[in-house]
Fold each of these.
Amino acid sequence: MEDKSYVSLEQRVCLVCGASFDTGSLLLDKRLRASMKRHTMTGWGLCPEHQKMSDDGFVALVECDPERSGAAAAGRLKPEQAYRTGRLAHLRRAVFAQVFNVPIDDKQACVFVEPGVIDQLASMVAPAH
């Protein structure tokens, strides 16, 4: 049985890779009651590796299985609905806008793509034989 405390280490889940990571923040129960576990998940974010990639001007393409992912309302898949296959690719923001012919917000770190998109991109940059 895990002991509870009135302090907890904050964790988030990376939007890109789905891994849990520590934020470095402490959470405090204002009533000072032993109500919290050692780690508390507070939402989504970017792990240090993917935050650096985003800061360097890259957009992560996260491959998701549409059959295993949750139903997307109006074509938008929420992070908690995405069934990640584990395949990733990173494109510079300017390249992303050219390849997909859509603008992308500077703060958007990733997009979910269907299987085959990453392979298609790889074939576009593969050296000719």
Amino acid sequence: MAKNSGNILLNKFSGNLGDSVYLKNYGGRQYMIRCPNREGHKKTEAEAANQHRFKLAQMYGSQVTKNPEAKAFYTPYREGVMTEYLLAQADKMISPVIKYIDSSDYCGLAGQQILIMATDNIRVTEVTCTIIGPTGVEIETGNATPTVRDEEWSYIIFKDHKMDEGTMIVVNAFDRPRNKAEAMLIIESAPGK
């Protein structure tokens, strides 16, 4: 990859130069890159799916740069040559991860908490928690709130309920582009047993 360091004929130019190279402006610098040779290549299903994901990420990045509020969300995360567009694109490509669900302080009483550790390449913006009884009936659902610890969220139980063996805690974490991660914890033994 060659860098343009002052050629005034190529300055601010981008795109193909013939069939073999193209110019790309990135972070205030200009690079000359060899065009890939895809002659006779047929995309696999996985390649086509990944290309579709990348196109969606590009569209999301473009939408972010046109929306001042969305752009301001990504501005604090800029480092070096990273732009809000590139950060938004990366955020769209990578889903959050739920690292753990801590139910050690939970036994079915209002006011008790469930702790959740959820991470993302940029930031998790919302965590929801749903408690489902062993028969599949939803007991309660609501939003968790961030704690003072980085990337940790707390869900406070808002009504008393019987916690039997097989009760499920379903947690969903979302980032700004609404990528979703889901994790489930099944209570194996009821309190006092």
